[in-house]
Amino acid sequence: MLNTNSEVLRTEIMDVLRAFNCENEDFLHYFSSACGKFFNSIEYQGKFYDFEEDFKAEDEITFKRLAKRSCKLAFYKVLAPIKGELPWGALTGIRPTKIAYAEKFANRDFKELFKSLCVIDPNISLIERILNTQKSVYSVGGTDLYVSIPFCPTKCDYCSFITAPVQKTRIYIEDYVKSVVRELYSVRPILANLKSIYIGGGTPFALENNQLAPIYAAINDICDVKCEYTVEAGRPDVFTEDKLKFAKENGVTRICVNPQSFNDKTLEAIGRKHTAKQTLEAYALTRKYGFDINIDLIAGLADETPQDFECSLKTAISLGAENITVHTLSLKSGAKLKEEVERLNVLGISEMINLSRSLLTQAGYEPYYLYRQKYQAGGLENVGWCKTGKACLYNVDTMEEISSNVAVGANAISKRYFGKEDRIERYAAPKDIPTYIAKTDKIIEERIKLFK
Ligand SMILES: C[S@@+](CC[C@H](N)C(=O)[O-])C[C@H]1O[C@@H](n2cnc3c(N)ncnc32)[C@H](O)[C@@H]1O
Ligand code: SF4
Alpha-carbon dihedral of residues 150, 151, 157, 162, nearest 10 degrees? Predict the structure, then answer.
């Protein structure tokens, strides 16, 4: 347990402890500042560590920012020699690029901050490349529309998303779709300057065309769909030509075909219930209808070696998808495989991520967005790669939080972006499907309040 005299710094310190998987160990921390110096004293495993650091702060906000940084770094310096260094050093949080932008807009060099927090050089260069790729799509303001479809053919063993196997939840689909459609009509007045549409999962193609039809129709009614329009169709075993044709007729421009791995042994081990051949067939069908395609891969699945992962990566590249998203396995509660976390070969996973960076770069892909999750193997990250001019606007907007996100469906989180203050306010709908259906009126009311 962390015992600190500074409650305002607790959250920041806990983030560092979590990064080292030692949030349940005992730490004693004393923080103070005097005469332009920060003092951090830490007791851990019977040893004492003292850190002293100069600082200059003209105002309270700067003081807090620097104090947070100094205590995170102090804990990092205690733990790194014992537990091993982390690729993102003492930099915590989901969105490193957002921190880099904040530094840039304050006329500071983000590289200096990242270096001072012990982020490794290749990661600093990666962030620099992402900011560069985003130049052509980074635009503050406007709105993105998200529709959540929390149904899947079956539950994959590694997955912690709030989603349910369709066998168990089939009885809710009709009412769920009705609720989503009601929500969609209610948000018509707040879709000013619509930048993109994203129907996400779960697995939207777990629904049949007649079930998706009212949702597509409502979207077409409430907005002009001549923008980027993604369906995270998902698992290849639910793709059909009819579903793709229907999506095309309804204005969809981008489809996610997700192999995770092209190795059949791995797919079986993670409970994906489809083969690599099915992925290739789904991909070919999707191409036939002229969509932009995203492919999701995960590094660290089952007992995969870097060579297994390299094969999947090379297959994805040879297909020529516009986007390839490389995830690092994250085992959160809710995933069947959570208890396997101790077995992960973290060195092997780091090698896979390094391979993905070099092979995708050689093949002409650029990194265009990045995010990190809790409990991600090796403290690594997820990176979206794109061909030139093919960055997905929706992903950039949601990661950088520079637009409002009007999100409908169970577990959907609407965010209103306040441009002047550069701040976000959120409203989260219930995760549980029957609760969501029962509370649709209340959800509509709460979102209207958020966007008033
Ligand atoms: C919201 S999921 C939906 C994708 C779709 N249902 C499918 O499985 O094809 C988006 C992506 O997150 C990634 N993902 C899911 N669980 C993960 C985990 N435990 N660790 C890392 N990435 C994960 C997968 O690559 C997945 O395609
Ligand atoms: S990985 Fe995709 S298909 Fe599998 S359970 Fe999660 S959301 Fe559903």
Answer: 20
Which residues belong to CATH 3.20.20.70 in the chain? 143-408
* Strand ranges in 59-117 using DSSP code E only, listed in sequence order: none
Task: Write down the pLDDT at residue 421.
Answer: 86
Q: Which amino acid is at 194?
A: L
Q: What is the DSSP letter of 329?
A: P
State the pairing for strand pair 143-149/404-408: parallel
Percentage of residues of the chain with pLDDT beyond 90: 86
Residue 30 φ/ψ, nearest 5 degrees: -130, 125
As annotated, the residues of the chain forming the CATH 3.30.160 domain(s) are 1-84
Report the C-alpha gap between 447 and 452 in whole angstroms. Answer: 8
Rounded-to-integer distance, Cα 250 and Cα 240, Å? 16
Between vectors from CA 386 to CA 369 and to CA 308, what angle results, nearest 5°? 95
Q: Which long-range contacts (CB under 8 A, 24 or more apart) does 303-310 make?
A: 303/269, 304/261, 304/263, 304/266, 304/348, 304/352, 305/348, 306/348, 306/351, 306/352, 306/355, 308/261, 308/263, 308/266, 309/261, 309/352, 309/355, 309/356, 310/352, 310/355, 310/359
Q: Which residues line ligand 1 (CB under 6 A)?
A: 152, 158-161, 201-203, 232, 234-235, 258, 260, 296, 298, 327, 329-330, 335
Q: Name the residue with the closest Cα to ligand 1, atom 15.
A: 159
CATH 3.30.160 describes domain 1-84: yes
Residues touching ligand 2 (Cβ under 6 Å) are: 152, 155-156, 159, 161, 163, 201-203, 234-235
Q: Which of 72, 35, 20 is nearest to 51 (CA)?
A: 72
CATH architecture of 143-408: Alpha-Beta Barrel (3.20)
Q: Which residues of 343-376 are buried (b: 16+ CB within 10 A; e: fewer)?
A: eebeebbbbbbebbbebbeebebbbbbbbbbebb
**Structure tokens belonging to residue 420:** 């002047």
**Beta-sheet strands, E only, within 132-205:** 143-149, 151-152, 164-165, 194-201
Crossing angle (nearest 10°) for helices 346-362 and 306-319: 30
Please give the distance, rounded to the nearest whole angstrom, from the Cα atom of residue 151 to the centre of ligand 1.
13
* pTM flag (> 0.90): yes
| The length of the chain, given as a count of residues | 452
Which of 149-153, 279-283, 371-375 shows the highest mean pLDDT? 279-283
